[in-house]
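Subject: Protein record for review, amino acid sequence with backbone structure tokens
Why sent: The fold of this protein is of interest and is recorded here as tokens.
Enclosed: The protein record, placed directly beneath this head.
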Amino acid sequence: MDQIKIGIKKTDNRSLGTVTIFTGIIHAIIFLAAFLYRGISVAPVVITAVALLVILGLPKASGVKIRKDFLYILFMLLWIYLDNYWMAMLNTLLFIFSYFSAQPIYFIFTKNNINRTGFFSKTYEWSSLNNVILKDSILTLDFKNNRMIQVETAQLDEKEEYFNNFAREGLNNTLEVK
């Protein structure tokens, strides 16, 4: 096999959802204040309130899972409706950040290097590592500069022994090249 792909166990993203809901409540307050004091249309207030109620109430009532980050798209459209393009752009950026931060993270081990995927992907060379080991679903990357990465892995298709042999070969190949 030329590569091994190891998924990182997903941490609880409740904090990301909480931030999104909090942002939704702030938008509802802003739209309500704009409606009361500036005379804008009531539509953004009603749409935001209904969206928040659906997102907060529907999953509990029916078991349906709704992605909360799509609230940002709704807010973007409402800000465009109100001709406030800066806030629309801000909500677009918040959506992009929220979407990519919720994506799964993988370590892809090849004969040449190690790639970490995710919001900020990174490539590590085998020559920069002292040791790589997978034990009890904990992946450890020990770097020569005294840095260490330790993460809990998701369900593995490969056995730990096979992975550790693959990693040992990658580390030994960099020693032979020198």
Notes: The chain has two domains: 14-101, 105-177. The mean pLDDT is 79.
